[in-house]
Design goal:
Elements: E1 2-3, E2 7-8, E3 10-14, E4 19-23, H1 33-47, E5 57-58, H2 72-84, H3 98-116
Parallel strand pairs: 4-5
Antiparallel strand pairs: 1-2, 3-4
GO molecular function: deSUMOylase activity
Organism: Colocasia esculenta (Wild taro)
Protein name: Ubiquitin-like protease family profile domain-containing protein
C-alpha cells in the first residue's frame, strides 16, 4: 500500500487466522492512514460476505527495518517474496542486503525485458 506521500508498506489479509498484518520498514513512524486502509478493506470484504469487523491489525515482529530513506519499496518487495516462499522465520534480510537485492531485481527486469523482445 502507498502510505502517506512517499512510503510503501505491505498489508496482508490472513483469512484463516482472521487478522490483518502490516509489514512496514519504517514502523517507528506513526502512520494514521494504515488503519484507514484496513477499514476500507473491511468494507470491501463485507461486500464479499466476509465479516472482518473484529479482525485485529497486527505488526509482526521481527520485521526488518530500513536504515535509508529510499528503500521502502525494495523492503516491501522482499516482504512479499519471503511470504510467498513461506520463508518468514525472522524474515531473513536486512538493510545491509539492499544493494544486492536492488541489483538482483534490476537484473530480473532487464532479463524479462530482453526475453520478451520479439513476442509482440
Amino acid at each position: 500500500m502507498h502510505v502517506g506521500t512517499n512510503h510503501w508498506a505491505l498489508l496482508v489479509i490472513h483469512i484463516k487466522e482472521k487478522e490483518f498484518h502490516v509489514y512496514d520498514s519504517l514502523r517507528s513512524k506513526h502512520r494514521a492512514d494504515i488503519p484507514q486502509y484496513v477499514e476500507e478493506l473491511k468494507r470491501y470484504m463485507k461486500g464479499k460476505h466476509i465479516d472482518a469487523d473484529k479482525w485485529p491489525l497486527r505488526y509482526p515482529d521481527p520485521c526488518p527495518q530500513q536504515g535509508s530513506g529510499d528503500d521502502c519499496g525494495i523492503f516491501t518487495c522482499k516482504y512479499m517474496e519471503c511470504l510467498a516462499r513461506r520463508d518468514i522465520q525472522d524474515l531473513p534480510f536486512s538493510q545491509d542486503d539492499m544493494p544486492l537485492v536492488r541489483a538482483k531485481m534490476a537484473l530480473h527486469f532487464i532479463k524479462a525485458y530482453f526475453n520478451g523482445q520479439g513476442r509482440s
